[in-house]
Amino acid sequence: MEYRKKIQHSVAYIQEKLGKVQADTVAFVTGTGLGGLTDAIENPILLPYEEIDEFPVSTVKSHVGQLISGTIDGVPVLALQGRFHLYEGFTAQEATHNIRVLGELGVKKLILTNAVGALNPSFETGSPMIIEDHINMTGHTPLRGENVDSWGERFPDMCVVYDPALRKLAVNKALELGIRLERGVFMQIMGPNMETPAETRMYRRLGADAIGMSTCMEAIAAHHMGIRILGISCLTNKNLPDCMKEASLDTVIAQAEKSSATMTNLIRAILKEIPQTAE
């Protein structure tokens, strides 16, 4: 299969540069404006996406586009600073190339972060939100096409995509740190256009608490491979259909960067106890 060969080429290049990935390595993907989390990585080794064989390259200006290996407070990490979106023209498989590579490298725990709009009117802008479940409204899936049996089943169950033990750990750490933490359902739409007031009403009635243009494809691919997932969203703006305000990319980035310290503190606290978290 051509797709799997591309994944294997990327894996071989990364292993050549970094060696074998440790079994307790935690990977995370940084969303728009949240790349500052990577500043906490100690002894970093940087691999730009364009240098990794067969690896896609991010085209969004707020996504640096590099893989970083190192440690955070003694925990080995692999950080994907920048992701790939369907609206950039990537297929669902291309948009999850990075996740498949993590799985082939042996990563078993993944933290997905993103910058999203709040649909739930009770949610506070700037607060993090734990993703408890998701709604994929893109009409796409990375599982389309021939299945790779060594990755996962042809028809994977999706009852629990986001790991309950990791979600509980995140909630406990937020309480310890005094961080207001929302919990809700995330919805991915295609983008890149923002939603209209009428669409906002519809999405809210469908059960979404927050909305964005990434993450579901990655979560599906990771879950398919048996990777434990924790999803944390940064609520950068609030979508109130009766008084909608413009939410430019610059506004989203600014709020995400403003909230970066809170997100970083929360994730660092989570990382310290992830190795001890039972499945």
UniProtKB/TrEMBL annotation:
Keywords, in A-Z order: Glycosyltransferase, Transferase
Root EC class: transferase
The protein's Enzyme Commission number: 2.4.2.1
InterPro entries named among the record's database cross-references: Nucleoside_phosphorylase_d (IPR000845), Nucleoside_phosphorylase_sf (IPR035994), Purine_phosphorylase (IPR011268)
Residue stretches making up the Nucleoside phosphorylase domain: 25-272
Top-level taxonomic group: Bacteria
Pfam families referenced in this protein's UniProt entry, alphabetically: PNP_UDP_1
Keyword Transferase: yes
Pathway: Purine metabolism; purine nucleoside salvage
PANTHER family: METHYLTHIOADENOSINE/PURINE NUCLEOSIDE PHOSPHORYLASE, PURINE NUCLEOSIDE PHOSPHORYLASE-RELATED
Family: Belongs to the PNP/MTAP phosphorylase family.
Function field: The purine nucleoside phosphorylases catalyze the phosphorolytic breakdown of the N-glycosidic bond in the beta-(deoxy)ribonucleoside molecules, with the formation of the corresponding free purine bases and pentose-1-phosphate.
Protein name (database record): Purine nucleoside phosphorylase
Gene this chain is encoded by: deoD
